[in-house]
Amino acid sequence: MGQIYVEGWAPDYGSPMQTDGALAEPEKVDEDVEVAGRWAPIVGVDDGVAEVVFVDGVRRVDARLTLDDPTDGPIAGLCGTYAVGAVGWDRRAGRSTYLPSRVARLALFGSGKVAEVPVAGPRLAYRSESVAETDPAALVQRFHGAMRKAEAALSEELVRSGRFVVADGPINDLSATEKVGFIKSHRAPYLSSERRAVVARLATGQRTPLFLIGAGGAYPRYSWYFRLADVPRGHAWSGIARAEVSSRLDLATAKRVADRVAAVLPATASQPHIEPRAPQNLVPIAALERELRRLMGDPAFIYRALREAIMRDRIGSGR
Amino acid sequence: MTRPHGVGRVLGTEHTNTREFRVAIDDDEYLQLDDLVVVRTTVPKEGEVRTYGVVTEVEAIYEGAQFESDTHRIADEGILPGAKVRSARVAVTRLEPELWVSADPGEVVERATGTERDKALYVDEMGRPLPVGLGRDGEPVFVDLDFFDGRKGGHMSISGISGVATKTSFALFFLRLLSARPDLVGDAAANLRILVFNVKGEDLLWLDKPNRHFTEDDAIAWAKLGVQPAPFPSVSLWAPPRRRSGDVVIPDTGGRQEGVAAFTWTPREFIDEGLLRFLFTDASDFRNQLAFVQERVQAQLRRYARDVEGMPGAVVLRDPGDGTDPRLPVKVHPGEPVVTDLGTLIEAIEAFLDPADGEPDPRWSGRTQGGTISAFLRRLHAAEHRLGHLIRAGESRRIDRRAAQVTVVGIQSLHDLGQRFVVGALLSETFGEKEGTGRRLPLTVIVLDELNKYAPREGNSPLKEMLVDIAQRGRSLGVLLVGAQQTASRVAPEVMENAAIRVAGRLDAAEAERSEYGWMLPSTRARARLLKPGTMVLSQPAIPVPLVLEFPFPPWATRKEEVADDGGDPFEGI
User: Fold this and answer.
1) Closest Cα to residue B199, out of B468, B384, B458, B423?
2) Which of A90, A93, A96 sits opposite B80 (nearest CB)?
3) How many CB atoms lie under 10 A from the CB of residue B513?
């Protein structure tokens, strides 16, 4: 069994990467599921939904580790924390509250190796897992996946309790629920150029007709663009966001949900003078991310605690 | 551990220290200004240390709001989650046992009640705690009498803007408690004498009359202080005589005549007690040669004055070198001027200093320049005009401070010069008496409003010297000054510094910022301009932070209209 070392360089070193497969193969798009002919903006409809629940997750690499394996040499590892949570926006009372959240800590090692990371303090126990690959990027990929799974599980629970859920990021499950995936950025061109022009013409609270993404693939879903806010001096797509629901829903339900999202979400759009990612980074989601980061604990404190615990462990074992 | 009086926990987002800490208040509790709290901290090797404190500020904020506009996002639209958090700032008053450690963050903060409250206010360490008002929690606030009656400290200074009528009200309230609690005051209560000057209106001429507006609620407050609410039982009232009233001496008061005695000094008393100096109390009089002339004339008056047969109190001025026994009264020579009042005294002095024919008598003038002599005489004439009616021959009408426990001297009708003269004469008499015995007991308490007029910060006068002397030595001689003023910054610092107990009512905003009020906490200073009548801030050496207290409505009248009808007893059944 190898010895664990905490690397001195910053935990986030080398981490920026595309983790949601946005640059993956372009998916098949059917633009004619709602309106087959000429597209025009559709005005959203607020059906008076009483509560909107926003779900999101955040993650952070707490420390980069190296496992000094006697046979396979240095093996990359990391200690990471993720938190998933939700904000319930009670539209009738005009109040938002944090719903119970979950924080998990994970130690990941490459090359199929697993080593126990000593407990660094109260609520600082890391569950060890391994990935087969040797590439450190695979560790982050796995870590991110774990967070996404936890997000999906939380969304699922909330949906089952009868709530209307808007989750940050694309949806990737198969259940026929009204769970909405909310996508801030526009990386893949889903629409033909003629129909993209309609997106540019959308006013706040309006949406495009539904289009079907990934028909025949693993996660087929209905999607639509809608305008969150008019952004002064912004480009035509500045205030545009995209949303998705599972295509296992019937089309009529999907349309109702799309109308609701187009009408209701603009109220939660953020202001450009406050939020650099305005308006797409919705106020409840931004607040939730801040809260979740806080719940993960102070990174400097955790980093030092980990170093200390691992150092003690090594001294204690006489190596 | 359950804490029945828990109201919150010590805030952990910032350092606590031995001076102050903050409290995150529980959702279903509250703390307000002046509340007393206690925190128990476990100190390694020492065990439990209790930190007592008083709430000096209370705050609330939306946690989760980063920008001011987030307030709307949280409260109106509700799209931003945020929670109201209320906190309180606590100034530490005491650590028990005295181990100077800070309170631990996260510890339960409890309201200090019962014996814990007494500890927070050091009541358990006070030799003789006298309740002097009610705290915001409705419980008594105490003053350690050892710091008033001269054992460890003395004097009280009361500041506050005028018109709110709190300064003298509080002074009298305090004195009423002092005289009504011999059980606490101890041997100092015996023969306690109180000298009160009424300088404005006639507020203090009704101390012996019940107040018709006194209610049962007020009586309950008095009961909490352990005092039966009643007017002052033993009061004598004095006022100067009305001018131009001929041979009949009538006290110069408006609303009340009954029970008020007129006071005057005879020329003999004026000379023997050296009251001449109190005619030169303007701060500017001290700078030039006037003081020299005054002292010389005073000395010569003592030597020259001879009683007159058949005319009590009157004197004639004769050269002491005539060979007769100076203690025996003399017969008036034909044509010899007799001093029967201030006017004739001045004429007699003038005959020596500035005779119509001939040179000034150098034994009187001390070869002072003519200009100074003129200035001296000018001031005498001015004084004659303003307070001449206070000096008259005849039977003695001196103020008898032994006649009652409280002696009220009404000087409101006198000109400033006259007021200073009366105050100077009485203080000198009182202090002289005590200097003679050299004993602290029995105590004499002097209540003097508008202290800035008598002991101003700038300039010098015999009266100011007198007051500074009382402030500095009165403590050991049992002469205690309860001074009041609108602006402490305009009173001689020696007088202010010697007051062990400091009290302030509502203050002018600019005044409250001055260093004279450094004993208040910044939060208390900020609040001092908002204090209601009847609310005071009290500082005493026994407690390191000032306390805010309320004192109840007085059972005695302060105006004629307030006097209860003679028929009914307003305190019946209370």
Assistant:
1) B423
2) A96
3) 15
Same domain, B16 and B105: yes
DSSP class of residue B478 equals: T
Task: Please report, rounded to a whole number, the percentage of residues in chain B having pLDDT higher than 90.
Answer: 32
Average pLDDT over residues A92-103: 93
Contact between A274 and B78 using a beta-carbon 8 Å cutoff: no
A87 interaction partners in chain B (CB closer than 8 Å): 81
Looking at the structure, tell me whether residues B116 and B150 fall in a common domain: no
Between A91, A96, A282, which is nearest B81 by CB?
A96
Do residue B430 and residue B366 come from a single domain? Answer: no
B478: which 2 tokens? 């049992």
Summarize chain B as % helix, strand, coil (round to 5): 35, 25, 40
> Could you report the per-residue pLDDT of B197-225, keeping only the tens digit for each?
998 888 888 889 899 999 999 999 999 99
Task: Examine residue B127 and state whether it is found in any structural domain, yes or no.
Answer: no
For residue B275, give the nearest of B383, B117, B395 by alpha carbon. B383
Q: What chain B residue is nearest to A53 in terms of C-alpha separation?
A: B79
Question: Averaged over A122-144, what is the pLDDT?
Answer: 91
- Residue B164: is its pLDDT beyond 70? no
User: Do B409 and B386 have their domain in common?
Assistant: no
B459 and B325 belong to one structural domain: no
Q: Which of A283, A290, A291 sits opposite B79 (nearest CB)?
A: A283
Q: Are B495 and B463 in contact (CB under 8 A)?
A: no
Answer yes or no: is pLDDT of A142 > 60: yes
Task: Say yes or no to pLDDT of B572 above 70.
Answer: no
pLDDT tens-place string over residues B121-144? 999 988 889 999 998 888 899 999
Same domain, B410 and B553: yes
- B65: domain range? 6-120
- Provide the residue type at A190 as one letter: Y
Answer for the pair A87, A276: CB distance below 8 angstroms, yes or no. no
> How confident is the model at residue B517, as a pLDDT?
86
